[in-house]
Specification:
heterodimer; A: 581 residues; Cytochrome C Oxidase, Chain A; 60% helix; B: 269 residues; Immunoglobulin-like; 2 domains; 5 helices
């Protein structure tokens, strides 16, 4: 694909705004919008984490009244489950890595002055923000937040009479997700166009940092997946409010006919997971890209197998759309299709394994610096392996018989999609904070934060595998009703204690973030001695990113320890190195 | 720092692996004919994945320690962009491992889900509703009587909850219970239904799980091989009482089963 000179980009540049509202609120600057997304995700992650804390406390001290919510009833617990999952998946894991860091650094890393469509960019943020407000509103309406889980399986999610929270709360939940989808679609278009059209001279696709590849592929997944969820959400709203029956067959609730007939509950599951599985990769791909980047930077070594990494991400993105049925092995879907979905799912494990091998290969014969971003990148690799290893269990329909819908599943996806992705967000924060705020974060606080998070999350999620093998179903608020669960209560207690400590440890991060913003050590333009374009510009970058300069790229993104070079890194904009291959 | 990372990563790996190997928490007792083959395949997957897990984590810990920055200019990182031969080797190895595992398990899946229940299997209709399981036996005529949604009365329990149509002659000898009773060493055909939302019929000891979906009648089978009481759980989120939607399956001898069923039918007359 052709790259363009600065002339082609001039139309996208706009004058620096004056005045608080245009500069900080309705900003067109991708950097400000990136920060807005980041702080939205930060607010969301604390809401989501607080909800999980309440869940864990309720599981082991069921009679205790809790702050803000008081007594927890069975339906309150399920509302917490639903809102925790939804907020974390949409407003944290989809928002921070792509909307936050992608927005801020994609244009700079490819040498562009802004995103391709700055107004669209602003709109996509404010749409997402509106979605978050609507989501939170579900807590405060009559009946409270919905109890149908983040997957919103119909008919439970389609029938207001099916439980508390399935009234207005459920409508708001669907509307919020629909709004989020619209924001995500606008964002995806912007990312794709920017990547294809706005690269600086010399920045061929195969010279892009792996972070940019990850954001680009994530955007394509988003474009294809969010539209389907949006349609599904609209159909569900119609079933709930307009008397249609897309997802509801003839059912009775409490012996009362609901007036629906002929719909298919499995249709919702197909639509949801057609989005839901690619969504997993939407959450993890940016972290994969970033950690590839960091392992190279801090090992002072080129990434092992750049092309293999790109092809692996592309195949993950491609295969990611053909595996959704593995969520439905026990659903009543034809058992024959399970074969196909299972084989595709096992196949997607191959590029994931390639990436892991390449990360290890990058470390070998490196010269590793244990700066805080690197600690989280190493943590990411460890968590990715641990979370990934349970995948081949769940991918086999036969093993899904005992494991599906047990604690084994949350153990698997929390490690890989939750915690590993969050480690990516932490790593990105520690890595790019100096560029964004012109100051360094405290390294010693960052290390404490790392140890709390790394050991803590293993203590929370590793034991959940054991619970799942012992057949503890997920989404249970109490383990007293089934006798065979009684012996698992001590292990559940252990998980709750670990969660309390780990969550407390996150306060170190918040303290460090805000303290360093104002009091941190002044950062130089390139504190990590990295090679990509964001480190060639001022700190923080000027409004047009490069201060009127036109970056020209001569080298690949990972030229570290090049023999004969004066320093152990060669910037992408440095004169071309000879031995490059 | 490299050494601390190595110790912590190794420690996490070995402690986790210990609990997996010691089986401190493990699959429930297997009491059905398919439990042995499912558990066997679980163990194979478990050993292979366990080896990959330990190897990758131990390698990661070792590499971060071994290749740490020791300071000084003699300590240089290698300038290498990778190795295509290695890439091909590990791509092929993982592909063989993953696809191979999958193919190994496919015959078990086929016998669980492709093969219909035997003609002489004991038929039980299982209906899930918020938040109870009901079990229906067709009686001597071998036919389930008609049910009508408009006749459903959840508070009546039993036949009333299912909306059994007493006008249908086939329903006269149907037996509806809140506890599932089945004979040992006979194949049981379950026909799964749901009235309101999706439930999932989960008997951990039988390695049996299948969603009960409104609008569908899903036929499955299992063969209990040990007498005793086994717990039934609901495994699909179905509303506020999800966690207490449980039941019991009593596995008894054929004689006891026949006696029990006859007694239930006598009660009806």
């Amino acid at each position: 694909m052709a790259t363009h000179g600065f002339a082609g980009q001039e139309t996208h540049a706009h004058a620096a705004p004056q005045g608080f509202i245009r500069k900080w609120v309705f900003s067109l600057d991708h950097k400000i919008i990136g920060l807005q997304y980041y702080f939205l995700a930060l607010a969301a992650v604390f809401v989501g984490m607080f909800l999980s804390l309440l869940m864990r406390i309720h599981m082991i001290w069921p009679t205790v009244a809790l702050p803000l919510v008081g007594e927890i009833k069975p339906e309150t617990y399920l509302s917490l489950v639903t809102m925790h999952g939804t907020i974390m998946v949409f407003f944290v894991l989809t928002t921070a890595p792509q909307g936050g860091f992608g927005n801020y650094f994609l244009p700079i890393q490819i040498g562009a002055p802004d995103m391709a469509f700055p107004v669209l960019n602003m709109l996509s943020f404010w749409t997402t923000f509106l979605g978050f407000i609507v989501m939170l509103a579900a807590f405060f309406v009559t009946g409270g937040a919905p109890l149908h889980g983040w997957t919103g399986y119909a008919p439970l999610s389609a029938l207001p009479s099916a439980g508390p929270g399935e009234g207005l709360g459920a409508d708001l939940w669907i509307i919020s997700i629909a709004i989020f989808c619209i924001g995500a679609l606008m964002g995806a278009l912007n990312f794709i166009t920017t990547t294809l059209d706005m690269r600086a001279k010399g920045m061929s696709m195969m010279r892009m940092p792996l972070t940019c590849w990850a954001w680009f592929i994530t955007a394509i997944l988003g474009l294809l997946a969010f539209g389907v969820l949006l349609s599904g959400g609209i159909l569900l709203l119609m079933d709930r409010n307009l008397g249609t029956s897309f997802f509801v067959p003839l059912v009775t609730v409490n012996g009362q006919l609901t007036g629906h007939k002929g719909g298919s509950p499995l249709l919702w599951q197909h639509l949801f997971w057609f989005f839901g599985h690619p969504e997993v990769y939407i959450a993890i791909l940016p972290a994969m890209g970033l950690c590839s980047q960091l392992l190279s930077v801090f090992s002072r070594k080129p990434i092992f197998g750049y092309k293999a990494m790109v092809y692996a991400m592309l195949s993950i993105g491609f295969l990611g759309f053909m595996v959704w049925g593995h969520h439905m092995f026990m659903s009543g879907m034809s058992p024959y299709t399970a074969f196909a979905f299972s084989i595709m799912t096992m196949a997607i494990g191959v590029p994931s394994a390639i990436k892991t091998f390449n990360w290890l290969g990058t470390l070998v014969r490196g010269k590793i610096r244990f700066s805080s971003p690197m600690l989280f990148a190493i943590g990411f690799v460890s968590l990715f392996v641990s979370g990934g290893i349970s995948g081949p269990f769940l991918a086999q329909p036969v093993l899904d018989i005992p494991l599906h819908d047990t604690a084994f599943v949350p153990a698997h996806f929390h490690l890989i999609m939750g915690v590993a992705s969050i480690f990516g967000i932490f790593a990105a924060t520690y890595y790019w904070f100096p560029k964004m705020f012109g100051r360094m974060m405290s390294e010693s606080l960052a290390r404490w934060h790392f140890w709390f998070s790394f050991i803590g999350t293993y203590c929370i999620f590793m034991p959940m595998h054991y619970l799942g093998m012992a057949a503890q179903p997920r989404r249970y608020s109490q383990f007293t009703e089934l006798q065979y669960l009684a012996h698992l209560i001590p292990l559940n207690k252990f998980i709750t204690y670990a969660a309390i400590v780990t969550i407390a440890g996150q306060l170190i991060f918040v303290a460090n973030l805000f303290w360093s913003m104002f009091k941190g050590k002044k950062a130089s333009d390139n504190p990590w001695e990295a090679t990509t374009l964001e480190w060639t510009t001022a700190t923080p970058p000027p409004h047009d990113n490069f201060g009127g300069r036109t970056p020209v790229v001569h080298n690949g993104p990972y030229e570290y320890s090049v023999p004969g070079a004066p320093r152990d890194f060669v910037m992408q904009s440095d004169p071309a190195i000879k031995a490059a291959h | 720092m490299g050494l601390v990372l190595l110790i912590i990563i190794w420690l996490i790996t070995f402690v986790s692996t210990y609990f997996f190997i010691a089986k401190t928490w493990w699959l429930p007792v297997g009491a059905s004919a398919s439990a042995a083959s499912i558990d066997h395949h679980f163990t194979i997957t478990y050993i292979l994945m366990g080896i990959v897990f330990v190897a990758a984590q131990v390698g990661l810990g070792f590499f971060v320690w071994r290749y740490r920055d020791r300071g000084g200019s003699s300590n240089k990182a290698e300038y290498s962009h990778g190795n295509t031969t290695l890439e091909i080797i590990w791509t092929v190895l993982t592909a063989v491992l993953f696809v191979g595992l999958n193919l190994m398990s496919s015959s078990i899946w086929a016998s669980e889900r492709f093969r219909p229940a035997e003609a002489n299997a004991v038929r039980v209709e299982v209906t899930g509703m918020q938040f109870a399981w009901y079990f229906r036996y067709p009686g001597p005529d071998g036919k389930f009587g008609a049910t009508k949604p408009e006749l459903e009365d959840a508070s009546a329990g039993g036949e009333g909850a299912l909306g059994l149509d007493s006008k249908d002659p086939a329903s006269k000898d149907d037996v509806v219970t809140g506890t599932m009773v089945v004979p040992v060493n006979r194949e049981i055909e379950v026909i799964l239904r749901a009235h309101d939302v999706i439930h999932s019929f989960f008997i951990p000891a039988f390695r049996f799980k299948q969603d009960a979906v409104p609008g569908l009648a899903i036929s499955m089978h299992f063969t209990p091989i040990q007498t005793g009481d086994y717990e039934i759980a609901c495994a699909e989120l179905c509303g506020l009482g999800h966690y207490k939607m449980h039941g019991i399956v009593k596995v008894v001898s054929q004689e006891e089963f026949d006696k029990w069923l006859a007694a239930r039918q006598a009660e009806k007359q």
